[in-house]
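Check these lines:
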Amino acid sequence: MNSITDTEFGHFQRFIYEAAGISLSPAKKALVCGRLSKRLNANQLSSYTAYFKLLTSGKAPAEVQTAVDLLTTNETYFFREPKHFELLREVATAAGARRPPQPFRVWSAASSTGEECYSIAMVLADCLGASPWDVLGSDISSRVLQRARAGHYPLERTRLIPPAYLKRFCLRGHGEQEGTLLVERELRSRVTFSHVNLNAELPRLGSFDVIFLRNVMIYFNGDTKRQVVARVLSMLKPGGYFCIGHSESLNDISTAVEQIAPSIYRKP
């Protein structure tokens, strides 16, 4: 594996900050080295400096996306932070009781490989039945979005799925697929995945009843957090709910929503 100098690491710190708003600490130097080393080999380059020059040449947009994919951390599992799904169940059940029923929309704004989106979809399918609903998942990484659309996961990521949901919405792999799980087709069809960079002007996505932006702000500095949260909250309906990670806070970040529980906010 090629070694990376402090100067070269600094180049990639700036690269991923400018591309995605992510601040890489010095502790991530080994991660950058490990994740990008194969791209040096794939492009027949001898140094990280040469690879950085390729990324900034304007001649390799596909390689830029590959580098962004590799430098964004994607770790998730089904029904992570259960309190948020308890809230979602309550809000969706109340929405389903309204007459006439209104479309109920949820956005997973950093959806990674899709486990969060499908967890949301299971709750909505259970609570809303035939009432109109949809789920949008977005991420800056095209690689993880491709995996999310497939809906195919190792069983160890599914341990928190309620047994009734496992039976109703999931297919357990056999033979060559032993040890894996596939989200059933009808549920997958209710979830849309889109490539979205939260650190840039957002596309027209419509408005949402609930937005999940969990375990993302930890990678941003203060100014970037404020800008990203403002963009995302502009898509939240009045009275809508906003969920962030339990290790995160909106203190000094936004006053557009009011905290109603740890990591749960509501837009007045």
Remarks:
- The chain has two domains: 6-71, 82-266.
- The mean pLDDT is 93.
- Residues 82-266 form a domain with the Rossmann fold fold (CATH 3.40.50.150).
